[in-house]
Amino acid sequence: MSTATPEVLVHPDADVLAAAAAARLLTRLVDLQSHRSPVHVVLTGGTVGIATLRAVADSPVRDAVDWSGVHLWWGDERFLPAGDADRNETQARAALIDALGDALPAANVHAVPGPSDDVPDGEAAARAYAAELRAHAADDGLAPRFDVLLLGMGPDGHVASLFPERSSLYEANLLVVAEHDSPKPPSERVSLTFPLIRSAREVWVVAAGAEKAPAVARALAGDDVRTTPAAAARGQERTLWLVDVASAAELPGADPAATPPVSGPRRPRSEVDPAWTAVEAYVAPLVAEGADAVAVRTAAADAGLPDIAVSSAQGRLLELLARAVGARRVLEIGTLGGYSTWWLAQAVPADGSVMTLEVSDAHATVARTSLAAAGLQDRVDVVVGPALESLDRLVAAHVAPFDLVFVDADKQQLAAYLDRAVTLSRPGTLLVVDNVVRGGAVVDADHPDDRVQGVRTFLERAAADGRVDGTVVQTVGEKGYDGFALLLVR
Ligand SMILES: O=C1O[C@H](COP(=O)(O)O)[C@@H](O)[C@H](O)[C@H]1O
To answer: Which intervals hold domain Glucosamine/galactosamine-6-phosphate isomerase (predicted)?
Structure first.
């Protein structure tokens, strides 16, 4: 089975890391629940793992999750009596599960059994846990398909209770194993094995602290699993390493003298800062992305379209702008999978319209299908072909002016789109143009990227164009650092 190459996100410190991991987990759960139930999450013990659960409990977004559709499992457990303070389960209950109360049914919490008459040793606990996994298996498999599997990592590079140099690292048949004489106390443990861990859709490794820097560097350099077990921690669809500055200090390119910043990102400005994602997750209830919008977004991803559509917060902004100007006729340049189109279509009245121009036949088909499934086929017209040609046809046909034009297409031609868009407008038409800041690159007159140069030409043209009044609003969020140009036609 092939697995996903690790992606690394560095956070300023352990607290921000835990908050961001919690926000990410909550957002993922809400997203997943829009099209799948139940959702299976594997918890981890350890400092960051438990801090993450505490942050989940403290987040108002936790109520956006339907916990009755979430099943919780553990990647490993210390083989200690139920209620022992050193059990990962006990710590997870104190951090999150108790706070969820009746929202999370007890039957959804799948703890590894502790010692009892029926479960005299770790092997018996491992067998019992494997049976529990089988009882919830997907499609006659041996275990549920885990949606997110969280792993902490020790300074020795262990994950779950799979320690360096142990035979359990190579277990190929069992889903769950017992570990005796663990190098980290307590000595008796039970752990999922790598075949099961690596069958998860997404594996997220969380690690913080300078003492973990060597192991983080070895794992991400692809060290031998025998010396750095974390090197084998990978998911089928995504492998995420959520680390702090201190534990990332030995990664290639890291500044060993770096101290965590008081605020702001440490990575290039165009990348996504976890604080931005956390805020986006926090405001998700206000944005209220509906199930139809999630379906449009998911269909685009499933069809393999690039992940360059607007975010839900930006989509909502488009909807609000269109409503604010009372738009009845909207023109969009650049449909992609129809996600921004969906938001714009929410704003126009039932007898209003959104015309959206898309150069790719394949993208247009995805968009049409999704928008029809959302019941918007009568309100949205997807026009296929090079946008400039479509625009020139509209100009030649003297169509009625549009009330709002949203431009999210090839940046090289933005100035030409501006020209056509103004021609197709009336005084008071609002033009919204996406991606005009580009991580700050727009200020670089010698930038080699012709998209940056396309934006610069457009902004210079807009500034000189006596037909519009405008501004640029810089934005941060899950789409990174960018911005919208807003132009009001005089
Ligand atoms: O013993 C364990 O340790 C690891 C990592 O813990 P940390 O305190 O160094 O973050 C944890 O992932 C595992 O679940 C746990 O049993």
So the answer is: 12-241
